[in-house]
Amino acid sequence: MARSLDEIRDEALQLDEVERGALADSLAESFLTPEELEIQDEWMKEVERRIADHDAGKTKSIPLEDVMRKLRAKYSSTSGAPRRRPTRAR
After folding, report:
1. Residue 13 placed within a domain
2. Is residue 11 part of a domain?
3. d(CA 29, CA 53)
4. Is the dihedral of CA 7, 8, 13, 15 positive or negative?
5. DSSP states of 5-68 as a string?
6. What is the pLDDT along the chain (90 residues), one digit of tens a residue?
C-alpha cells in the first residue's frame, strides 16, 4: 500500500537541514521544463565562473555598505516627495 502524503511529509521533516534542502531542490526541479533546466545549468556555470574569477583575484568586490550608500544617494528624493521604487524592465 502506498504511503500517504502526510506520512511522506512527516518523514521528510525528520531529515537534517541539508537533506531537506536537497529534497526541496529536487522537487522544485521536477516542475521545470527541459529548456528551464538548461537555462538553470548555464546560470550555475556562470556563477561558478564568477566565483573562480573572484577567487583568482580577477575581479574586485565592493562592500555591501558602499553599494547601499550609493543606491540610497541615487534614489533618495530631495523634494520631499515619496520615494518610488525603480521598476523592472520587461
Report:
1. yes
2. yes
3. 28
4. positive
5. HHHHHHHHTTS-HHHHHHHHHHHHHTTS-HHHHHHHHHHHHHHHHHHHHHHTT-S----HHHHH
6. 789 999 999 999 999 999 999 999 999 999 999 999 999 999 999 999 999 999 999 999 999 999 999 999 999 866 555 566 667 765
Domain of 54 in residue numbering reads as 5-75
Residue 81 belongs to some domain of the structure: no
Buried b vs exposed e over 18-57: b needs ≥16 C-beta within 10 Å? eeeeeeeeeeeeeeeeeeeeeeeeeeeeeeeeeeeeeeee
Name residue, grid cell 558602499: 66
Structural domain count, the chain = 1
This prediction has a pTM of 0.56
At 58, give phi and psi (nearest 5°): -80, -15
